[in-house]
Design goal:
This protein has about 90 residues and is mostly helical. Helices cover about 90% and strands about 0% of the residues. The relative contact order is 0.16.
């Protein structure tokens, strides 16, 4: 069991997790900022006014980036299954 190989796989898994979660988080961040700016400008303090658009933006980002995220996860899983015999032995 090679420690460097395991650390490399763990590093790549964490990086993939960050990259896969970035589109919906970024979309929610942008929409949340715009809605907060709108609420501050109009003095509307309704909590659902900021939650619903952020949720819609996150779902839309997942729909748009879904194929890319799936491709990256599939690539990593394939690589992991190919390297698994080296890690176990």
């Amino acid at each position: 069991m090679d420690t460097a190989l395991i650390l490399s796989l763990a590093r790549e898994a964490l990086l993939l997790m960050v990259l896969a979660s970035a589109p919906p988080i970024a979309a929610s961040l942008v929409v949340g900022f715009l809605m907060s700016l709108f609420q501050a400008t109009t003095s509307i303090q309704d909590s659902t006014l900021s939650v619903v658009p952020k949720l819609c933006a996150a779902v839309l980002a997942l729909v748009i980036a879904g194929p890319w995220i799936g491709q990256q996860l599939s690539r990593f899983a394939t690589q992991l299954f190919l390297v698994l015999p080296e890690v176990v032995s």
